[in-house]
Amino acid sequence: MSDSKLAGQFFDAAIGLLTRVRDEEAESIAAAGAAVADTVESGGRLFAFGAGHSSLAAQDVVYRAGGLALMNLLTVPGVVGVDVMPAPLGSALERVDGLASAVLDSSPATAGDLLVIVSLSGRNALPVEMAQNARALGLKVIGVTSVAYAENTRSRHASGGFLRDHCDIVLDSKIAIGDAELTVPGVDAPFAPASTVVTSAIMQSMLAAAVEQLVARGVEPPMLRSGNVDGGHEWNGRVMTENRDRIFYRH
């Protein structure tokens, strides 16, 4: 069987986007890493949030091998994955005014903490209000989004603003509107989205930059090891015990 031309084209597209992000967002990623390091060093807590498929990149940095133990998932019932039934309900909830404030008010997030909000379009009420309210509470907010949406679509929030308008630091994923990299005759819709690949890479690069900053400051970052290597469970148990007041996925 010969190699798939379309599969190769998708890899090329993803690599091209990753290269653009690496080169064009380097300064912003370094700034985001420094902000994470500042929060770790000062005793603050770290949170990540995403809705729908944007939640995949947020989940990818929480409680995982090689990850920063202090990163917590800020969950909004019904919007974190496609397991909600019916699945379109999750998309509808992203447009509900007031949901973000209710979630933040009942969460452990407080002034001095940091929240990373992942939203590809950044146009729905939920991510916009999440950023607005988090900053009002005194959190540092990092937005991971596609600036193309803010420049070429209309906001669905009453303010007319996008996620990027309410963040301390914005990381642009460079994903084109529609999030589909390939087209082919005979298929009426574009396909092969790359946002998960690129956004997850942005999140991991940001945390790598944070680790670099912490080491330079003489602070050992609390990292998790794989539970599938010898000693991993014991290591993780110690790290989570030492940082129990900043970790919420254990309770």
UniProtKB/TrEMBL annotation:
Stretches assigned to the SIS domain: 36-221
SUPFAM superfamilies for this protein: SIS domain
Protein's name in the database: SIS domain-containing protein
InterPro entries: RpiR-like_SIS (IPR035472), SIS_dom (IPR001347), SIS_dom_sf (IPR046348), SIS_GmhA/DiaA_subfam (IPR050099)
PROSITE patterns attached to this UniProt entry: SIS
The species this protein was found in: Streptomyces globisporus
Superkingdom of the organism of origin: Bacteria
